[in-house]
């Protein structure tokens, strides 16, 4: 299949995507804080305010305020006597665990903001993403470093730094954790965690009364309309036709059980009208 057709199919897939459900956590204790989280170490403020981990509404050293709203998660001298005693570890990590979100196969974007001042080579910040609803972090699907260096010196971000991660379509759930190790007189801030799901737009519907589901599907895709459906053709993301079926019926039960798991474009023909949809095989 030539490049023009492949490009067309990819544009069709992208055109279905619009902004969907959002889950947020900005630590302001409002109704918009819908993405739940926990910390492996309970929030604290010790040693006359020089050892900090938790919600903060005032300046943390050279971090003057939250990225937005009132509160943010502040950190300072996290490897301290309190956390060592609490965890029984000589170099304790501080971890924020964000609750699993059900995606039902649609793509999503995770984003949040980080600010750090005076980090050094022994310090690190990273996040991991897993495409499931478990609680075991021995395995994960993505690992991204926010701060990591082997060089001497002290390092600071240029104000609040936005971090983004794209979750591909085809997964039922997603969860995330943020891992920090920091020792000494440095300052940390974390704010505005957000997961935005994508969903399919109904604005592209052309065939009268057309509907389909379930999507994602494991075996059978059901399609129906108020008019006769003539033919259904399935293409993979490379533009190769992998399945075709003549229908001549207003209701079709298409067996996709033999297709490999992934994302496909289905083209439905009805008289002089065509409909293209994105489907996910699980």
TrEMBL record:
User: Domain Secretion system C-terminal sorting spans what residues?
Assistant: 214-280
Keywords attached to this Swiss-Prot or TrEMBL record, sorted alphabetically, are: Signal
Name the record gives this protein: T9SS type A sorting domain-containing protein
N-terminal signal peptide: 1-24
């Amino acid at each position: 299949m030539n490049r023009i057709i492949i490009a067309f199919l990819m544009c069709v897939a992208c055109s279905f995507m619009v902004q969907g459900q959002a889950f947020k956590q900005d630590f302001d204790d409002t109704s918009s804080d819908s993405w739940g989280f926990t910390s492996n170490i309970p929030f604290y403020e010790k040693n006359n305010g020089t050892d900090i981990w938790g919600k903060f509404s005032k300046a943390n050293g050279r971090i003057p305020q939250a990225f937005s709203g009132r509160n943010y998660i502040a950190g300072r001298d996290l490897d301290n006597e309190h956390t060592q005693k609490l965890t029984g570890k000589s170099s304790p990590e501080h971890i924020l665990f964000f609750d699993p979100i059900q995606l039902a196969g649609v793509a999503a974007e995770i984003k949040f903001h980080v600010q750090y001042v005076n980090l050094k080579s022994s310090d690190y910040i990273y996040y991991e993403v897993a495409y499931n609803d478990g609680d075991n972090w021995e395995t994960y699907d993505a690992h991204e470093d926010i701060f990591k260096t082997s060089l001497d010196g002290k390092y600071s971000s240029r104000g609040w730094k936005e971090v983004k991660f794209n979750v591909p379509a085809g997964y039922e759930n997603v969860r995330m954790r943020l891992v920090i190790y920091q020792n000494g007189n440095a300052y940390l801030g974390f704010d505005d965690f957000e997961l935005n799901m994508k969903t399919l737009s109904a604005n592209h519907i052309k065939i009268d009364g057309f509907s389909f589901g379930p999507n994602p599907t494991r075996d059978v895709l059901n399609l129906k309309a108020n008019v006769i459906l003539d033919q259904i053709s399935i293409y993979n993301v490379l533009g190769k036709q992998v399945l075709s079926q003549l229908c001549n019926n207003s209701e079709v039960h298409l067996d996709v059980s033999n297709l490999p798991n992934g994302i496909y474009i289905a083209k439905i023909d009805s008289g002089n009208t065509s409909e293209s949809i994105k489907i996910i095989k699980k």
